[in-house]
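debug: dumping io for the single-chain case to check the tokenizer round-trip. Nothing else runs in this session.
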Amino acid sequence: MNYKELISSIKNKETQPVYFLLGDEPYYINKITNAFTNIILEEEKDFNQIILYGKDTNIEEIILEAKQFPFGSEKRVIIVKDAQDLKKIELLEDYLYNPQKSTILIFSYRNKTIDKRKKIGKIIYKNSIVFESKKLYENAIPIWINNYVKEKGYKIDNNATVIITEFLGSDLTKITNELNKLMLVIDNKNIIDAKIIEHYIGISKDYNIFELQNSLAERNNIKVNRIINHFEKNPKNYNIIPIISSLFNFFQKVLFLYELKNKDQKTISNVLKINPFFINQYKIAYNNFSRIKIYRILEFLDSYDQRSKGVKNNKTPHSELLKELTLKILYI
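debug: decoded output
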């Protein structure tokens, strides 16, 4: 089942006895888990909804709870959060062959999957509903943001999605939290743009990692210095470690451009997992930095990443490290 099918079946109470929610994207796992908590009426939850945690329970206790009959309700819901911490999951085998029909048993695995090669893995995939929640690639995030905003009855422009993506990355939970707060205070007749993002969320349209990346690609010394000075005045919002990580990811993909024989937009987007909207900036960097210079830039980024974490650093402030790093990139 995909996410929408699974949510629909839960809302319609078309459920199965056992579910495994797996993967490295917690957003969908949490949404599905929360949907299961709405199956039981509020006044019936004390007797018919049990929430357990993998590190505090065991398979025997889970099976004991699952085999109990509901009291005053059609179903009994057992949710096992952080199920990746469970020991001896293979002890679940007999229950999976003959689960309690009046119980809905949900295992929530975060940042982990079930090994399909093992016997218990094969049994789980055959005898339960398995949902795998996978992290989205970077190039898919702006499209995801557009679709999420559209489903909520709002509109957002490309620049705003770029800013949100660059500032919040691929963390769907953070992205939706910020968008939900934003949509509480603006009218849905307004298009969410960079000015609205800056005013309500506090992400500057001119001073952010994305603009730093673009300014370096363009070798725009004046703009880079302005951005770095802004970062220095707002150290809580602009930590050097994610900035270096973002720049390393950017220049690494610029390096990959040298390996592509076909440099049309579709090929670049598919191979490098870049949203087409971003491709022009990668091409600008490609034209402004030779292959050898890109290698040197990656070496700089690796070195300053280590120094920012205290390796071979004589207490140089992060703001000074970032100034040094960007100057080296600009004047390589």
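debug: round-trip ok. The chain has a mean pLDDT of 90.
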